[in-house]
Amino acid sequence: MLSQAQRTTILELHTKGVGKREIARVLGISRPTVRKVLRSKATQVPELRRPEKAEPYRDRILELFSNCKGNLVRVHEELVASGAEVSYPALTAFCRRHGIGQAPVVAAGRYDFQPAEEAQHDTSPHEVELGGKKRKVQTASAVLCYSRMLFFQFYPTFQRFDCKVFLTEALRYFSGAPNRVMIDNTHVVVLHGTGRDMVPVPEMAAFAERFGFQFVAHAIGNANRSARVERPFWFIETNFLAGRKFSDWGDLNQQARQWCDKVNSTYKKHIRAVPRELFAVERPQLKPLPAWISEVYRLHQRMVDVEGYVALHTNRYSVPLEWIGRRVEVRETKDKIEIQLDARKLVTHGRIAEAEHQRILQPQHRPPRGQGMARTQPHPEEQAIQAAAPEIADYVAAVKQRSRKVPGVALRQLLRLVREYPREPLLAAVREAARYGLYDLDRLERMILRRVAREYFLLDDGKEPHDD
After folding, report:
1. Does 173 lie in the same domain as 307?
2. Could you tell me if 349 and 386 lie in one domain?
3. Lowest model confidence (mean pLDDT) among 117-121, 376-380, 381-385
4. How many domains does the chain have?
5. The domain that contains 151 carries what CATH number?
6. How far separated are the first and last CA of the chain, in Å rounded?
7. Is the pLDDT confidence value at 468 over 50?
8. Is 83 found in the same domain as 22?
9. Which segments of 374-466 does DSSP mark as H helices, in order?
10. Same domain, yes or no: 18 and 92
11. Is residue 45 part of a domain?
12. Which residues, in sequence order, are bridge partners of residue 119?
């Protein structure tokens, strides 16, 4: 079939007086074809109208398409079974031309970003060989949309704490913050809503405000909006993780950072540039980081158990034995576990990244075998009791040995009784309890209350008051 350009050439040559034979020879076509074009006097290519074999069965095809749930193989089988003479290619071509079961073709969009306008953040699960064992990890990635600078790290899980740790490291790697960070409607950041209606968790909104950016989310199903960060995940899996083995989490993330330095300095064919060179243009426009960036941490309240350990995420960290039964504050950061009893007493351990049911013991927290624990001074509660009521020192020593409660808890309860109740009923109740060997402090408190009721709250006997 002749194209529109060929038909136009034939008509133009004919108007210039060129004969049909010469036109056919120049264009390499037959003379009957030239005569047909001259007879039509039209440059438009005529529509090709041919009968379609599947057209008589259109209604039946639509019915079967619905019944067979869009499976054209089954539609063809049912058509043939009902006596239709239609090949499978003819059926698929008919459905394609008439839009049966075919989604309308939509052109891919394109997003253009100015320097420092946006960074995109997302996570994806991957499998790595860590310490000789294969295991699933969460890969967190961040990409500057203009320069395509890439930064990623690996975590056993990805919670809000891990998200803040990662974004802090990413912003330090980029030496600045963009205007906004695009996320994929993750519950780690989102409080409620999606897309433009997304409202971040106050904790994460405060984190973003500290660095001068804001979180935004793309509409559900609009994966192209976050394509800058989605694309590198396949690259990480097929390049960085391929054939590599890692000894521990520190080794894994250190190699990931070194690989980021390498690929960010490599020419990228799809952007026709080197990300590090584009970053030289983008970096001056990033928002500067705060002069001091506080370490991301989580606070936990724990009681020291009878073995002198503090439990956190199934792992147990040792503390001095004199802390047994005391309440401590645990500060969990990316690399450390800080256990604090008070302003002057602090124990620091290296953090285990995942729940492994391990015990971490520092040698100074346990005396050599056979020496026992050398207590330099009594509990602060015991000192306070001795200062307020020295008469009950023997009972205090017996309570520490024979009470069913942890000594620290029992001493705190006894100190409360000394401070809250009158002295005489308290001493009388303690003498009676010591005489009968009663060291249940709840029962001792009831004994004190009975004496207080008898001696301090006299009931009216019903007699009329009179003047002397």
Report:
1. no
2. no
3. 376-380
4. 5
5. 3.30.420.10
6. 137
7. no
8. no
9. 380-388, 393-402, 407-420, 423-436, 441-456
10. no
11. no
12. 144, 181
Same domain for 315 and 426: no
- CA-CA-CA-CA dihedral for 228, 230, 231, 234, to nearest 10: 160
Q: Are 180 and 315 in a shared domain?
A: no
Q: Are 163 and 189 in contact (CB under 8 A)?
A: yes
Q: What is the pTM of this model?
A: 0.65
Query: HSE of 429 in the Cβ direction (CA atoms, 13 Å)?
Result: 26
**434: domain range?**
380-456
Q: Tokens representing 177?
A: 């913050």
Say if 254 falls within a structural domain: yes
Q: At 149, list the tokens.
A: 């600078």
The tally of CA atoms less than 13 A away on the side-chain side of residue 403 is: 24
Q: What is the dihedral sign for C-alpha 253, 179, 268, 172?
A: negative
Co-location of 278 and 353 in the same domain: no
State how far the Cα of 150 lies from the Cα of 141, in Å rounded to an integer: 7
Q: Which residues share a beta bridge with 167?
A: none
Answer for the pair 337, 351: CB distance below 8 angstroms, yes or no. Answer: yes
> In a 3-state reduction of DSSP, which class is residue 121?
strand
Question: For residue 368, what are its two tokens?
Answer: 């050599």
Question: How does DSSP classify residue 360?
Answer: E
465 in a structural domain: no
Integer Cα distance of 45 and 27 in angstroms: 17
| Amino acid at position 134, single letter | K
Residues 422 and 355 in one domain: no
Q: Is the pLDDT confidence value at 460 over 90?
A: no
Tell me if 140 is assigned to some domain: yes
C-alpha span between 364 and 320 (Å, rounded): 8
What is the CB-side half-sphere exposure of residue 75 using CA atoms within 13 A? 28
Q: Are 122 and 228 in contact (CB under 8 A)?
A: no
